[in-house]
Amino acid sequence: MEIMGIRxxxxxxxxxxxxxxDCLEIIYGTPxxxxxLDTVAAETPVSWAGRPVLNPGPFQFHGDPAHVRSWMRRRxxxxxxxGEVREIMRPIPIPGDEFRWGLCDGLHRxxxxxxxx
Length: 117
Ligand SMILES: [Zn+2]
Ligand SMILES: [Zn+2]
Description:
Bound molecules: zinc ion
Largest sheet: 6 strands, mixed
Helix content: under 10%
């Protein structure tokens, strides 16, 4: 639109404040979006009944992996230190006394090494 010869660009998406899924503060600029891949590709046929269903996202964060990891930690998810925080993370079921999820970028070929996120 144009007012008295001055061009005003109206960007609709800027009117909605995005908030970081970790610290809940407003994100200025481009958010870091993280998607959790579907678990369909699980190697072993397991019953998922009674297990928490993963929300695939996308989740939005400040552009700092620390926010993504702190968010994972709060959910009790582990992080594979062979990979990095990326826009697409694969959920890996970790069997044990207490069932947990680990997130990995899935780009390495050796074994996962899950640590506290
Ligand atoms: Zn944040
Ligand atoms: Zn891994």
